[in-house]
Specification:
four-stranded antiparallel sheet, three-stranded antiparallel sheet, 1 helix
């Protein structure tokens, strides 16, 4: 009988320890914040990609697609591919956060296959596409890191 109680207690203790280890808050409050920005030599890093795009939350009848490609010279090309929401589009803008810290914006036409080119870098840049629909709201439909393609 005592052996059963000891084993039961041991099993319950293991379960409690496992739950406590898995249920951490993930808080990094123990890490002190740096008092001065770190000094690095070289190219600055690209800021990470933000939240999921709002195109994921638009209803299927209002979704559109803009294709982003980077060529071997570092130029980013945005091409409007259309979609079910083509008739609702009023404005399309592409913003590129370059790896050197420069931010550039260009307007893409609202007709099928309209495009715009923005000078990027020969590194990884962040491209974001914002579409304004006929409801007057602007939606971010694309937010991705675009790597440089080495020409072979």
């Amino acid at each position: 009988m005592n052996l059963r109680i000891v084993l039961l207690f041991a099993v319950l203790l293991c379960i409690v320890i496992a739950i406590a280890g898995c249920a951490g808050t993930g808080s990094q409050a123990d890490t002190p914040a740096p008092t001065s920005p770190p000094t690095t030599v070289g190219t600055p890093e690209v800021v990470g990609v933000g939240d999921p795009t709002e195109n994921d939350f638009l209803d299927a009848a209002r979704r559109v697609t803009v294709n982003i490609e980077k060529d071997h010279l570092g130029m980013l090309h945005a091409t409007f591919q259309g979609g079910p929401g083509l008739i609702h589009v009023r404005k399309i803008e592409v913003t590129v956060n370059r790896s050197d810290g420069v931010v550039k914006t260009a307007a893409v036409g609202i007709k099928l296959d309209d495009s715009a080119s923005i000078e990027g870098t020969k590194d990884t840049d962040r491209a974001m596409v914002f579409v304004t629909l006929d409801d007057g709201k602007t939606y971010k439909i694309y937010d991705e890191l675009v790597p440089y393609k080495i020409r072979m």
